[in-house]
Amino acid sequence: MKRTISLTINGKPHTDEVEPRLLLIHYLRDVLGLTGPHIGCETSICGACTVLLGGRTVKSCTMFAVQADGRDLTTIEGIAADGKLDPIQEAFWNEHGLQCGFCTPGMVLSARQLLADNPNPTEQEIRHGLEGNLCRCTGYQHIVNAVKTAAAGKSAV
């Protein structure tokens, strides 16, 4: 039996009928067409599906869409404003913190929460804060540099 859910996603209200077993990642991608959160491992290991739910990171492959009912959710599509990249996105671009881009949405949103919780993290704190997100391309140093740059407010070229 389907359930009606209502969420605010990237500042816009959405109401849909969904199966109770529909994962949040599949709701975002298949129902709403938001392809920023990626489907990687579907076991919560890779972090490619990371979104912000109520301002906190969650891996959208680990929860049902009905669990997000009534909440505010932000995907990578919702952090740029007026055609201008979010400072963390800009730092990832400038510091070459992305290669294939598959992990980038989850990394950026995890970095966003990390910097909201700790605006001046050490390299060790950055690495710890991002350890729930896997990257197969960059070797992480450029990602760490991007978070340092964003923390220092030096992301603008």
Structure notes:
The chain is of the alpha+beta class and 157 residues long. It has five helices and five strands; from the N terminus they run E-E-H-E-E-E-H-H-H-H. It has helices at residues 24-31, 87-94, 104-117, 123-129, 141-152, and strands at 3-9, 12-18, 50-53, 56-59, 72-74. Strands 2-1-5-3-4 form a five-stranded mixed beta sheet, with helices on one face. Strand 3 and strand 4 form a beta hairpin. Helix 2 (87-94) packs across helix 5 (141-152). The longest helix is centred in the last third of the chain and has 14 residues, at 104-117. The protein is globular and about 50 Å long. 39% of the residues are buried. The mean pLDDT is 95.
Task: Supply database-style keywords.
single chain, five-stranded mixed sheet, 31% helix
The side-by-side strand order for the widest beta sheet comes to: 2-1-5-3-4
Helix content: 25-40%
Number of strands: 5
Radius of gyration: 16 Å
Low-confidence stretches: none
Q: Overall 3D geometry? A: globular
Order of helices and strands: EEHEEEHHHH
How many alpha or pi helices? Answer: 5
Percent of residues in β-strands:
15-25%
Short description:
The protein has helices at residues 24-31, 87-94, 104-117, 123-129, 141-152, and strands at 3-9, 12-18, 50-53, 56-59, 72-74.
